[in-house]
């Protein structure tokens, strides 16, 4: 979910289409200095204007040529256009080998390329069990603020090489999703770089948390000031844990940060608002569970509460559908339909005001385990308001939202 506050979004394409997805490009619009990138980014041949600028930034073509080696004899590993670095890596880096050679070695495993349809978003190829990766990357891509941050990010000379390589690959993947002439993009380079096991399903919530933490680590050293704290500023909220002694009425306060709200789902839950009420309700500590009050120097009855002190502009909510079953001693999934509002209002304790969120994406999980089954994402285009279903490489109109008068969507598979 994201707030209704205005955002900076990319300007419409020259054709006047309201879609933020670049139209498939043709040879007639080829830019000479970018034509060699066509095969590498899945068949896209950038033209003039916005698409050319995006490709230039994705492949660091706007960076001046490295002149560090005029009087030096070693590689400059931190410069993206260092010829010496390219020479030193030619024997081991597959990037410097011919595309035809790589294709001939891969043989029949290379999928057929389907041409993109104008106005239809691109999908991501499932490499085996990487649907958890695909849905979250699509959610990030369709957040126009986040996408712009990825495009704007520039590495500093002393930044960590691995962090920056991942960010460069994410920039390239975003570029392919925006301007490629192929309907399905292959994310192998980024998946491999992240060390993800393509045949092992992972919990998308765990991946989301780890990937955002990793991105913040990489962006924190960005040469672009607006990028350095973007993840923290846009995705991170703050809790206040308060325990109040009922004898002396003194409160013990502790703060913690979060990047997602993990809300309980029970048989009595029918809406997100109910989940929130259960999550934030106060708890009475009494009997054997009394509070050890430092002021009274005794165990006392107390009230323990959880408050949302700061709510981030981009809010992730996870529905805890997997619960531990004592009888089977395993986690089981609760197939309970939950009503999800298209507009959700929060009380922000820090600013003492109301924060209104628009629903922008829903990740669905089918199956009985977090480490099996399948993930699908339904995402709303911020410009057109249209919902689209992303099922790996299969992209179709959204199923959850139907009709302009709908205030809620109901789903027994909604997970995030």
From TrEMBL:
Q: Which UniProt keywords are present, listed alphabetically?
A: Hydrolase, Nucleus, Protease, Thiol protease, Ubl conjugation pathway
Q: Could you list the residue ranges that cross the membrane?
A: none
Report which reactions are catalysed by this protein: Thiol-dependent hydrolysis of ester, thioester, amide, peptide and isopeptide bonds formed by the C-terminal Gly of ubiquitin (a 76-residue protein attached to proteins as an intracellular targeting signal)
Task: List every stretch annotated Disordered.
Answer: 1-21
User: Could you tell me the superkingdom of the organism this chain comes from?
Assistant: Eukaryota
Residue ranges of domain USP in the record:
122-416
What class does this enzyme belong to in the EC scheme? hydrolase
Q: Main localisation, per the record?
A: nucleus
| Pfam families (UniProt xref) | UCH
What GO terms fall under cellular component here?
A: cytosol; nucleus
What Gene3D superfamilies does the database record attribute to this sequence?
Answer: Cysteine proteinases
Where in the cell does this protein reside?
Answer: Nucleus
One Gene Ontology term from the biological process aspect of the record: proteolysis
Entry EC number(s): 3.4.19.12
- What PANTHER family does this protein map onto? UBIQUITIN CARBOXYL-TERMINAL HYDROLASE, UBIQUITIN CARBOXYL-TERMINAL HYDROLASE 48
Q: Which family does it belong to?
A: Belongs to the peptidase C19 family.
The protein, known as: Ubiquitin carboxyl-terminal hydrolase
What is the scientific name of the source organism?
A: Spongospora subterranea
């Amino acid at each position: 979910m994201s707030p209704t506050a205005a955002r900076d979004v990319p300007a419409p394409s020259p054709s006047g289409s309201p879609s933020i997805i670049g139209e498939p490009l043709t040879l007639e619009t080829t830019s000479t200095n970018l034509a060699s990138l066509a095969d590498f980014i899945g068949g896209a041949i950038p033209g003039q204007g916005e698409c050319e600028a995006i490709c230039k930034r994705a492949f660091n073509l706007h960076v001046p040529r490295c002149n560090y080696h005029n009087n030096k004899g070693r590689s400059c590993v931190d410069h993206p256009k260092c010829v010496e670095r390219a020479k030193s890596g030619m024997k081991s880096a597959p990037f410097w080998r011919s595309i035809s050679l790589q294709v001939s070695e891969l043989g029949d495993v290379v999928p057929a390329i389907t041409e993109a349809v104008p106005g239809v978003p691109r999908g991501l190829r499932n490499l085996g069990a990487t649907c958890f990766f695909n849905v979250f990357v699509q959610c990030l891509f369709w957040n126009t603020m986040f996408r712009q941050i990825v495009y704007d990010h520039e590495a500093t000379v002393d930044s960590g090489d691995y962090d920056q390589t991942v960010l460069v690959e994410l920039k390239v993947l975003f570029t392919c999703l925006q301007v490629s002439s192929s309907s399905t993009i292959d994310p192998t380079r980024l998946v491999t770089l992240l060390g993800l096991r393509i045949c092992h399903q992972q919990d998308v919530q765990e991946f989301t948390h780890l990937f955002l933490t990793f991105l913040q680590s990489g962006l924190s050293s960005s040469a672009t000031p607006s990028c350095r704290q973007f993840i923290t500023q846009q995705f991170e909220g703050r809790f206040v844990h308060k325990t109040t002694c009922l004898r002396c009425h003194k409160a013990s306060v502790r703060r913690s940060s979060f990047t997602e709200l993990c809300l309980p789902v029970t048989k009595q839950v029918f809406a997100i608002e109910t989940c929130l009420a259960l999550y934030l309700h106060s708890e009475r500590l009494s009997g054997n569970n009394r509070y050890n009050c430092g002021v009274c120097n005794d165990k006392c009855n107390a009230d323990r509460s959880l408050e949302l002190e700061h709510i981030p502009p981009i809010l992730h909510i996870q529905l805890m559908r997997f619960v531990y079953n004592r009888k089977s001693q395993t986690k089981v999934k609760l197939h309970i339909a939950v009503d999800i509002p298209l507009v959700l209002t929060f009380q922000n304790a820090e600013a003492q005001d109301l924060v209104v969120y628009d629903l922008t994406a829903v990740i669905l999980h089918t199956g009985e385990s977090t480490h099996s089954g399948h993930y699908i994402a339904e995402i709303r285009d911020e410009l057109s308001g249209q919902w689209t279903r992303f099922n790996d490489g299969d992209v179709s109109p959204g199923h959850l939202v139907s009709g302009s008068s709908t205030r809620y969507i109901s789903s027994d598979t909604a997970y995030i």
